[in-house]
């Protein structure tokens, strides 16, 4: 089970995640409470083990900007969080030449009250739309990881709200060969085991669910999350 701890803002948290066995640590370059700078991240990634993936999260659609940040910050992967933009993914893959991986985020819309879907965009319909987008990512051939995250209002991550895992079971079960689906959104140490049992994903991604406050991890929750994901 691939485990990513996202929303890191300091070396202490990122290093602890690595020490506890996380496969990847994430840094948010998109505007928000956990936004970091190139200089901040470069100082952190230089002191992390080589086995740990260093992932930058972007909502920008500017390939040159993303590439410059990735190289300057010492990233090994970029996570495209601004919706499916096939041209952007292709440009980045060409620019990186395989040296930096591309992860595509797709969003499961959840209403602002935290309900699992809306009348206008039912769970079955949303699953079908996402399945089509996953097929497009697979056909494009530049990203082998697709992260499914909750979108609540304008917020496409770090909301602490889960999407409809029951409705998403078929989506995860029918993922194209060669595509690793990652579940995010509302995961906690208490719920991650249940999410894995229901969805059988290729990996899990958490940010707010292991925090003491935005941008600061709770060591005990972090340890329990990784242990429960492995278990």
Compose a concise summary of this entry.
The protein is α/β, with parallel strands linked by helices. It contains 8 helices and 10 strands. It is 37% helix and 22% strand.
Description of the structure:
The chain contains eight helices and ten strands. The protein is α/β, with parallel strands linked by helices. The strands form two sheets. Strands 1-2-3-4-5-6-7-8 form an eight-stranded parallel beta barrel, surrounded by five helices. A two-stranded antiparallel ribbon has the order 9-10. Helix 5 (123-140) runs parallel beside helix 6 (165-173). The model is unreliable at 114-120 (pLDDT under 50).
Name the descriptors:
single chain, 231 residues, alpha/beta, 8-stranded parallel beta barrel, two-stranded antiparallel sheet, 8 helices, 10 strands, globular
Radius of gyration: 16 Å
Assembly type of the chains comes to: single chain
* Main sheet specs: 8 strands, parallel, barrel
Binned, the helix content reads 25-40%
Q: What is the count of helical runs?
A: 8
Shape: globular
* Strand count: 10
Helix-strand category: alpha/beta
List the secondary-structure elements in sequence, H or E. Answer: EHEHEHEHEHEHEHEEEH
**Low-confidence runs:** 114-120
- The average pLDDT value, as a whole number, equals 92
User: What percentage of the residues does DSSP assign to strands (E)?
Assistant: 15-25%
**How many angstroms does the end-to-end distance come to?**
9 Å
Strand order of the largest sheet: 1-2-3-4-5-6-7-8
């Amino acid at each position: 089970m691939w485990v990513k701890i996202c929303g890191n803002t300091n070396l202490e948290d990122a290093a602890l995640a690595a020490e506890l066995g996380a496969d990847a640590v994430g840094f948010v370059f998109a505007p928000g409470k956990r936004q970091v700078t190139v200089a901040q991240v470069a100082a952190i990634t230089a002191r992390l083990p080589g086995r740990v993936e260093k992932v930058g999260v972007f909502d920008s659609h500017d390939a040159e900007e993303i590439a410059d940040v990735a190289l300057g910050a010492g990233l090994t992967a970029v996570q495209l969080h601004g919706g499916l933009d096939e041209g952007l993914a292709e440009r980045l893959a060409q620019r990186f030449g395989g040296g930096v991986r591309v992860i595509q985020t797709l969003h499961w819309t959840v209403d602002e009250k935290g309900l699992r879907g809306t009348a206008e965009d039912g769970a079955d319909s949303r699953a079908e739309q996402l399945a089509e987008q996953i097929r497009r990512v697979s056909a494009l051939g530049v990203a082998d990881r697709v992260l499914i995250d909750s979108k609540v209002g304008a917020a496409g991550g770090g909301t602490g709200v889960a999407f409809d895992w029951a409705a998403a079971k078929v989506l995860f079960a029918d993922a194209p060969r060669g595509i690793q689906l990652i579940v995010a959104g509302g995961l906690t140490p208490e719920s991650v085991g249940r999410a894995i049992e229901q969805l059988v994903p290729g990996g899990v991604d958490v940010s707010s669910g292991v925090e003491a406050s935005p941008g600061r991890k709770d060591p005990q929750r972090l340890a329990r999350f990784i242990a429960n994901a492995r278990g």
